[in-house]
Automatic annotation (TrEMBL):
Residue segments, region Disordered: 29-64
InterPro entries on file: Glycosyl_Hydrolase_73, LysM, LysM_dom_sf, MGlyc_endo_b_GlcNAc-like_dom
Domain LysM: 239-282
Gene Ontology molecular functions: amidase activity
Keyword Hydrolase belongs to the record: yes
Gene3D superfamilies in UniProt: 1.10.530.10, LysM domain (3.10.350.10)
Entry-linked CDD domains: LysM (cd00118)
GO biological process per UniProt: defense response to bacterium; killing of cells of another organism
Protein name in the entry: Peptidoglycan hydrolase
Organism: Nonlabens dokdonensis
UniProt KW keywords: Antimicrobial, Bacteriolytic enzyme, Hydrolase
Length: 283
């Protein structure tokens, strides 16, 4: 059969018509893409679940502050006071009690504005910061510090480097009563009740416990009290003391609020040597 041009054209047209009558859906092949992770920031009121919490996050518990500002002060500075005791042999109990008393438990003007917790005045040779404050006289010069811990260190050096306080370091390191009296006698404060105020603070807040910790002793061990040494009282106004181990004229002068010279005069002593069992007139 002879194939004509008209036959070929007819076949092509029929093929196009059949293709147009088929499914119009097309299969499209695309390159897969990685899913995009989306996060929604939690609202301020939402609490994250345990799965949402960061395992590396460190949480700390803040101890609530006491209503007693003295106790708060002790909590803030007890570690500093114990460190100073280890380095300079000054009872932590005395340092803390002085800090409480001199700074108003950290609320006094010198403590707040100058970080001066011990009322240390400028004195000759001081080249650091200064603040002027009414004390025994109007507008006296007091030292300033960048941090309260520097005030504690300067307090240690102030006592250690001055000859008038040298006798304090002959006392037992945990003899807080002897230290309290010795500070007043050496001229640290003019208040006649200064020793009693320090002792009252130490005993009320058991500050001697920090002496024990610094010395590596049982924290609840009671300190040896100088007043427990044997003493007798004669009739009238003469008071005697029986010398025991550890006594010295300087220690007795602090205990009985007198002077070494007066004790030597009362007892006709030509030296500072004492013998155990020796009876001394102290008042």
């Amino acid at each position: 059969m002879k194939i004509t041009f008209r036959y070929i054209f007819t076949v092509i047209v029929l093929g196009m018509l059949l293709a147009s009558c088929g499914s119009k859906k097309r299969v499209v092949t695309r390159k897969p893409t990685k899913p995009v992770a989306t996060t929604t920031a939690p609202s301020k009121n939402e609490t994250p679940t345990s799965e949402e919490k960061d395992d590396d996050k460190v949480t700390t518990t803040i101890k609530p502050r006491s209503g007693d500002k003295v106790q708060n002060y002790i909590d803030d500075f007890k570690e500093v006071a114990m460190e100073e005791m280890k380095l300079y042999k000054i009872p932590a109990s005395i340092t803390l009690a002085q800090g409480i008393l001199e700074s108003g438990s950290g609320s006094g003007r010198l403590a707040v504005e100058a970080n001066n917790h011990f009322g240390i005045k400028c004195h000759k040779g001081w080249t650091g910061g200064r603040i002027y404050h009414d004390d025994d006289e109007d507008q006296e010069c007091f030292r300033t510090y960048n941090d309260a811990s520097y005030s504690y260190r300067d307090h240690s050096l102030f006592l250690k480097d001055r000859k008038r306080y040298a006798g304090l370091f002959q006392l037992d390191i945990d003899d807080y009563k002897g230290w309290a009296r010795g500070l007043r006698k050496a001229g640290y404060a003019t208040d006649r009740r200064y020793p009693q105020k320090l002792i009252s603070l130490i005993e009320r807040y058991e500050l001697y416990r920090y002496d024990n910790i610094a010395l590596g002793k049982d924290v609840d061990e009671k300190p040896r009290v100088i007043e427990e040494v044997k003493e007798t009282q004669n009739s009238g106004f003469v008071k005697q003391h029986v010398v025991v181990k550890g006594d010295s004229l300087y220690r007795l002068s602090i205990k009985y609020n007198t002077t070494v010279e007066q004790l030597k005069k009362l007892n006709n002593l030509k030296s500072n040597d004492l013998s155990i069992g020796q009876v001394l007139i102290v008042k």
